[in-house]
Amino acid sequence: MEGGAYLVIALAFGLAGGIVGRMKGTSFWLWFAISAVVPFLGLLAALLYRFERDELRKQCPRCGKVVMLYDALCMRCGHELEFPDVAIEPESVARARGT
Ligand SMILES: [Zn+2]
After folding, report:
1. What's the whole-model pTM score?
2. Structure confidence at residue 96 (pLDDT)
3. Average pLDDT over residues 29-51
4. How far is the CA of 21 from the centre of ligand 1 (A)?
5. Ligand 1 mean position, distance from CA 59 (Å)
6. What's the 67 CA to ligand 1 centre distance in angstroms?
7. pLDDT of residue 83
8. Short-list 86, 85, 18, 10, CA closest to 46
9. Residue 33 Cα to ligand 1 middle (Å)
10. pLDDT for position 1
11. What is the 76 CA–ligand 1 centroid distance (Å)?
12. From the CA of 57, how far away is ligand 1's center (Å)?
């Protein structure tokens, strides 16, 4: 690929990643840098990162760590997790309400 064209693509992805990063309340420049350095993966990571914050969560019954609803194992204590009766609201919702 020609150098100039790559620069344009990198900047475009950087901008897109930065805007996504900004929307989810983190650093524009952090995600701009990540998306510009690794254009496709960086933008994908920015999008997925935001997505995870909108997921329902649950609490590990053994150690109390809050994990993603779809996690089968607790990341802290290794406890095998079942689908809970009560899910915890997504982080993005909790944050929007100011709790
Ligand atoms: Zn646990």
Report:
1. 0.48
2. 84
3. 85
4. 29
5. 8
6. 9
7. 79
8. 18
9. 34
10. 54
11. 5
12. 13
Radius of gyration of the chain (CA): 18
Asked if 45 contacts 14 with a C-beta cutoff of 8 angstroms, the reply is no
What separation in Å is there between the alpha carbon of 12 and the centre of ligand 1? 41
Q: Could you read off the pLDDT of 41-69 as tens digits, one per residue?
A: 888 888 877 566 777 889 999 999 988 88
- Which CB contacts under 8 angstroms, 24+ apart, belong to 47-50? 47/20, 49/21, 49/24, 50/20, 50/23, 50/24
How many A from CA of 11 to the centre of ligand 1?
41
- Find out whether 98 and 89 touch, Cβ atoms under 8 Å: no
Q: How many helices (H) and strands (E) does the chain have?
A: 4, 2
Distance 94 CA to ligand 1 centre (A): 22
Strand, coil or helix: 62: coil
Tokens describing residue 12: 């475009």
